[in-house]
Amino acid sequence: MSTSSEPSTTRIPLCEPEISGSEWTYVRECLDSGWVSSVGRFVTRFEELFAARLRAPGAVAVASGTAALHLALLASGVEPGDEVLLPALTFIAPANAVRYVGAWPRFIDVEPSHWQLDPECVRRFIERDCAWEDGTLVVRSTGRRLRAILPVHILGHPVDMDPLLELTRRFGLVVIEDATESLGATYRGRPVGRIGDIACFSFNGNKLMTTGGGGMIVSDRPDWLDRARYLSTQARDDTLEYVHGAIGYNYRLTNVQAAIGCAQLERIDEFLERKREIARCYADGLAHMKGLTPLGEAPWARSAFWLYTVRIDEAYSGRSSRGLIAELARHGIEARPLWQPLDLSVPHRSSAASCPIALDAHRSGVSLPSSVGLSPTDQARVIDVVRAWMHSAASSN
Ligand SMILES: *Cc1c(COP(=O)(O)O)cnc(C)c1O
Fold first, then answer.
1. Shortest-distance atom of ligand 1 to CA 213
2. Which of 178, 180, 367 to mutate to test the pocket of ligand 1 (most atoms within 8 A of CB)?
3. Relative to the CA of 206, which ligand 1 atom is closest?
4. What 3-state DSSP class applies to 186?
5. What is the atom index within ligand 1 of the atom nearest the CA of 64?
6. What is the mean pLDDT of each run of 10 residues along the chain (397 residues)?
7. Distance between CA 230 and CA 215 in Å, rounded?
8. Which of 52, 105, 159, 328 could form an S-S bond across to 116 if both were Cys, CB 3.0 to 4.6 Å?
């Protein structure tokens, strides 16, 4: 929290970690004991605590959320030449992970209310553009097997999962949840990351909780978790004799990082409560403004409100999202647009895709400062700047 006597000049970051619990104590314990690397009591404890929190039978701690996605794809049987459905609107990591395993991302548009993967677009794609060939679901235009769907719960809000699950059961697809932005959210009472077949979390510095860098894989399938753990530590069959049974990776989380994770996990309910308070305060402070709509929460969702995001309707308000971001920056406040739709990105460009809602979200979305430690004074400052700027537009029209 800021204690500066000149609050109007302090910088307000988008999303900073909150490190004020037992982190020092646990890290010091690692350093004093010499257990700093990938073996040590904190790695196992972090996995156990995380799995218990999500009521999962097990969890595998890895070096990043991206590594978690890579291993989840491998463990769940996605193979080179397969296709995987994912939303056009997301951070690029899940699309990259699909390419790491030699498979191909197929981008699907998001729905207009919460900008999450649209189950209706998924259904349309499968029914119109795929066909059964010798018992395999194949994408007609490419002839590739459609193997999995990778819903990404973006910005803290869950994807509408039930209609997706109905489709994946009907068509025999694996569901890999990217829950990296939405730890703590629930969908119809079910925790995000416990709905599909396997799920990935991230503990990067800007996520709800952090280990500096890190990730976690959770699943009900013990064989998949075993496979992921095996691949994360160089696929050792015999550690003494250096015998390896596959091409593995050096993806294990270190004990020092896990120590930070254990300390962060102790406070996660507090973090979530703060995120919801911040969301409530923005919803009140930014209510009834012409051309500005908060993304909000679906009736069936409990959002983790990782990044509080609003939509700026330029045609209606005469104000652009980029203009608002620049105005906030002028006041030392960090705000950000949403990602370029991945079907337009250089590494994943594909001619066929057209995702107009994702493009609209990229053009109109603005994420506002959402750090757990955001002080009420600083948040009031953000709200004042947004209101003043939107109003000045209204009066200049
Ligand atoms: C943060 C993030 C990741 C990757 O996490 P890292 O720990 O940074 O590798 C993956 N997917 C999404 C949607 C993310 O926001």
1. 7
2. 180
3. 1
4. strand
5. 7
6. 53 96 94 80 96 97 98 98 98 98 97 98 97 95 97 98 97 97 98 98 97 97 98 93 95 96 97 98 95 95 98 92 97 97 91 86 98 97 96 65
7. 16
8. 159
